[in-house]
Specification:
By secondary structure, this protein is an alpha/beta fold. It folds into three domains: about 5-120 and about 165-220, Alpha-Beta Complex (Spore Coat Polysaccharide Biosynthesis Protein SpsA, Chain A); about 230-285; about 300-395, Rossmann fold, CATH 3.40.50. The protein is built from twelve helices and 17 strands. The protein has helices spanning about 15-25, 45-50, 65-75, 95-105, 135-145, 145-150, 185-190, 200-210, 230-255, 255-285, 305-315, 360-365, and strands at about 5-10, 30-40, 55-60, 80-85, 90, 110-120, 130, 170, 175, 180, 215-225, 300, 325, 350, 375-380, 385, 390-395. Strands 1, 2, 3, 4, 5, 6, 8, 10 and 11 form a nine-stranded mixed sheet that branches. Strands 13-12-14-15-16-17 form a six-stranded mixed sheet, with helices on one face. Strands 7-9 form a two-stranded antiparallel sheet. α11 (about 305-315) links the parallel β12 and β13.
């Protein structure tokens, strides 16, 4: 078998459903398997998804042992020559899978490869490639120097932003959102370190690959990553786990850095815990994190059936009436939203997934990076309208 795709799911069944739909199209013709490890989800993920994807290998965990633990269960089950560690909140393209495999086939020195991730507005996701975090690199990140001088090799090493995003390059750290690995590399150096409950497990594995004498690569093949940290609490918890796991990373690989940063990181973690559990509830009340969605205004491209169903969903969810509907398919309107004017009046470009391929959606989104439009999708098969911060269902 050529490829095993391993996905760990935790309470994101609709995003995972879309990921699996894009993945099925992307691996068509590849001798492969898809393994989903469910980390004790409470949203009915398995009941909802198993009948819809009977070809997927489903593994149910009775408790959430963390991201690393869940992936290792999948790795141990995998049969492929290559193993793709993939986040459930992604949309993949055919190039991202097939061309990445072709690259690994022709570059035996490559232990792992990552790809070009794009954000909800079509901009390049800086975390698509990263450098090893040492004191100077950490200082440049913390002070914002890496973003202020992205083309500088001196200041921009955290994101390795001096490299061309459209060129293949060796990098130091590959993102675990899409990490294509050789199975024999994992057998030789070991799988994910389960000390890392969440975050930095990909950096740890990347660093071990480099120390083993193999290389990590960045490949300019596109995927979409939601990174749905929409609420204040989720952002704070993200930072909490990020800092906690960074401390584990330093302790394991750079003991001197661990000593140097121990107190600052401990203070940062303690402040975050206090803000989450005490300060914000005391100031704003128990419901301080209720996230209020901003008004959404959609430009919709899709079949007549899709447009009708989307109108009903928007009305049901009281999402206003200031939307634009264009009855179109990829065949009769291949340029989609990029030929429209006055797009700044809208917040989302919404494509019907039966009328436009995911590859085309992402290609068009990248042609209007950084404007007001964020990607949303709808499928007449599933009846789910998916945005970066909410799901709206037909039924």
């Amino acid at each position: 078998m050529k490829l095993s795709v391993v996905i760990v799911n935790y309470n994101v069944k609709y995003y995972l459903e879309q990921c699996l739909r894009s993945l099925q199209r992307a691996i068509a013709g590849v001798d492969g398997e898809i393994i989903v490890v469910d980390n004790a989800s409470e949203d009915g993920s398995l009941k909802y998804l198993k009948p819809r994807f009977p070809e997927v290998v489903w593994i149910e965990c009775k408790e959430n042992g963390g991201f690393s633990h869940g992936n290792n269960i999948g790795f141990n089950k995998a049969k492929g020559e290559y193993i793709l560690m993939l986040n459930p909140d992604t949309i993949v393209t055919c190039d991202s899978i097939k061309k990445s495999i072709e690259f690994m086939d022709t570059h035996p020195e490559a232990g792992a490869a990552g790809v070009k991730m794009i954000n909800k507005d079509g901009t390049f996701a800086m975390e698509s490639r990263r450098g090893i975090v040492k004191p100077w690199v950490a200082f440049c990140k913390a002070t914002g120097l890496c973003r202020r001088y992205p083309k500088s090799r001196l200041f921009g090493h955290y994101y390795m932003s001096y490299l061309d995003i459209e060129e293949i390059n060796p990098i130091e750290m590959v993102s675990g959102a899409f990490m294509l690995l050789r199975r024999n590399t994992l057998q030789r150096i070991g799988t994910l370190d389960e000390q890392f409950f969440m975050y930095w497990e990909d950096s740890d594995l990347s660093y071990r690959i480099l120390k083993s004498g193999e290389k990590n690569y960045y490949l300019p093949y596109t995927i979409f990553h939601y990174k749905g940290e929409s609420s204040v609490k989720s952002k704070l918890r993200y930072r909490y786990w990020l800092y906690s796991s960074l401390q584990t990373f330093f302790k394991k690989h750079f003991p001197l850095y661990h000593i140097l940063f121990y107190i600052p990181i401990k203070i940062a973690v303690a402040i975050l815990k206090f803000r989450i559990h005490h300060a914000y509830p005391m100031i704003y009340g128990d419901n301080w994190d209720n996230y209020k969605e901003p008004d959404k205004r959609f430009i919709v491209f899709g079949s007549e059936k899709a447009c009708t169903e989307i109108k009903d969903i928007l009305a049901k969810n009281k999402l206003g009436y200031n939307h634009m509907f264009v009855t179109a398919t990829e065949q009769d309107n291949p340029t989609g939203h990029i030929t429209l004017s006055n797009v700044n009046r809208y917040t989302h470009i919404l494509y019907d997934a039966e009328s436009y391929s995911y590859d085309t959606m992402l290609r068009l989104l990248q042609q209007t990076p950084g404007n007001t439009l964020r990607l949303a999708t709808y499928s007449t098969q599933t009846g789910n309208l998916i945005t970066e911060d909410a799901i709206y269902s037909r039924d």
